[in-house]
Amino acid sequence: MDDLQGVLRGQKISYFSMEIGLSSEIPTYAGGLGVLAGDTIRSAADLNIPLVAVTLVSNKGYFRQILDSSGNQIEHTEEWNPAHFMTHLTAEVSVKIQNREVKIRAWLYNCKSLTGGCVPIIFLDTDVEGNDPEDRKITDFLYGGDQRYRLKQEIVLGIGGVRMLDELGFKIRKYHMNEGHSSLLGLELLRCNGIDPMKVKELCIFTTHTPVEAGHDKFDYGLVEDLIRDKNCVDVLRRFGGAERFNTSLFALNLSNYINGVTKRHSLISSELFPGYKIQAITNGVHSYTWTSPYFRKLYDRYLPGWANEPELLVRIDGIPDTEIWEAHWNAKKALIDEVNKRTGVGMDYESLTIGFARRMTAYKRATLVLSDLEMLKKINRRGKIQLIFAGKSHPNDGAGKQLIRDIFKNIEILRKEIKIVFLENYDMDLAAKMVSGVDLWLNTPTRPYEASGTSGMKAAHNGVVNFSVLDGWWIEGWIEGVTGWAIGPQPEEKLSEEEAKAAELSDLYNKLYYIIVPMYYDRKDEWVKLINNSIGMIAYYFNSHRMMRRYVTHAYL
User: Fold this and answer.
1) What class of enzyme is it (predicted)?
2) Are residues 111 and 213 both part of a single domain?
3) Which residue from 106, 126, 255, 415 has the least number of CB within 10 angstroms?
4) 364, burial (CB in 10 Å: exposed 0-12, middle 13-18, buried 19+)
5) Residue 354 sits in the same domain as residue 265
6) How far apart are CA 120 and CA 139, in angstroms?
7) pLDDT at residue 39 in the model
């Protein structure tokens, strides 16, 4: 408990997230949601925001991805030992699941800032002696198992998390739910506040990250009644979480005074999805220091002292000589290409225009869109050499996502003699940092409007990498055509069918590569360097988690 003494003073904002990405060595994240949570916590520490975070320990991680020669994804457990990174706390609480008392212990990780700030993170763990063997596994796998397993995890995170904070002596004045996975904390708060929803609403903040109905967790009440065998509690869930199925997001919406989406576009879509709720917009950002390569960090330190805690200083990028900016980019690119060649032996070179695509492999992200017309891709390559680097994991139960990886592998073979393409396995935070800083062009091709935000392009911009993206999520706000990068396809307000939109996107994708991007990269390097400057000075200065957290403080936490 000594490790807690310095962080217990005063009231805290509690930040609940099913996943938090801190480092590749702590595999408690699956993708963008967890990495964003990590950036949120890092910025809170930098800015001395009185935050405490709560998550699950995920003892066996998400999974380690192995790919065979045909691109078949094989999942391996990624076991790790929390004791190597965290302090075991003596506090213990319990929750009821099927009328069994499930004991929960906690690990403490202090996220410390170079500025002296600190955010404690409480990792909940049910691998406790005395628990039923089945219950000991509840906090093993992030997003593992079936609906039953997921609901058990959400009981531990929401209800158990509130109880653990209370047991540890934290004084909490706001509960911030990062997505609906933790919304059962509202049930515990109702229990503690005489089932008074107005009191609970004063305490709760809900950030939704999902722009489509199917993306919100829903559980059949038969399952809910089996796991939560308290009729009064189930009645409360029906009252605030939906009569037919328990909708975690609806439950959070009904018990929060402040609700926000993660971009302006996403907040509008969420308002249409959940009419009658006032859904604000706080656009996501990334932690500038974490996602800037060592080469650009050194440059910014020299010319823009203090930039790490005041990323808005990046607006002064024009004060740095272009030759030094290009050298920093070249060094980051060299580091990535060396890593690719070491892993694959494919023999990529430093000179070719290098295009990166790395994110969760799922159908709406459309990783294979750029490979739709191989003859056109060959034509572009004849105009100026291109090489492509892919990476990303597919959820173990996502058959369509796994097929995308196999399709990329097939195309790698077809194009082997003409275009160098690789798919790097086991995408993690370390590989992400190399990719977002080392490619020349960052490609993003989601099906509209399924990208709530997306943050990889923001990371790329911090390293002067140019964005080329469908107009969805954050890019609608960051895009100035030909100035900060390029759009792919129609404007957001254009009403086209999915097929019409795809046809327009493919035409735009290939035409811009052939007529604008490739010629500029090879023949007009000064214009390309200007795009690098604009990516930093017009995007990175604003799309960072310091700006995001200041918005949460002034709009949600007060």
Assistant:
1) transferase
2) yes
3) 415
4) middle
5) no
6) 19
7) 98
pLDDT at 8 over 60: no
Q: What mean pLDDT is reported for the chain? A: 96
Convert the pLDDT of each residue in 64-118 to its tens digit. Answer: 999 999 999 999 999 999 999 999 999 999 999 999 999 999 999 999 998 889 9
**291 domain-assigned:** no
Tokens at residue 201, please?
A: 């609403």
Q: Output the pLDDT for position 2.
A: 47
Q: Which of 115, 458, 485, 472 is nearest to 314 (CA)?
A: 458
Closest CA to 178 of 476, 556, 475, 558: 556
| Cβ contact 54:383 at 8 Å | no
- Would you tell me the crossing angle of helices 545-552 and 32-46 to the nearest 10 degrees? 80
Q: What is the CATH number of the domain that holds 442?
A: 3.40.50.2000
Q: Indicate whether 514 and 551 sit together in one domain.
A: no
24 is a domain residue: yes
Number of domains comprising the chain = 2
CA quadruple 338, 343, 345, 347: dihedral positive or negative?
Answer: negative
Residue 269, domain extent? 1-282+546-555
How many Å apart are CA 388 and CA 56, to the nearest integer? Answer: 36
Do residue 402 and residue 261 come from a single domain?
Answer: no
Q: Is residue 535 part of a domain?
A: no
User: Are 374 and 275 part of one and the same domain?
Assistant: no
Asked if residue 208 and residue 73 are part of one domain, the reply reads yes
Which of 29, 25, 24, 55 minimizes the C-alpha distance to 120? 55
User: Which residue matches tokens 């275009």?
Assistant: 419
> What's the CA gap between 228 and 96, in Å, rounded?
7
Both 411 and 357 in a single domain?
yes
Q: Are strands 353-358 and 245-247 parallel, antiparallel or unpaired?
A: unpaired
Q: What is the pLDDT of residues 208-264, one digit of tens each?
A: 999 888 789 999 999 999 999 999 999 999 999 999 999 999 999 999 999 999 999
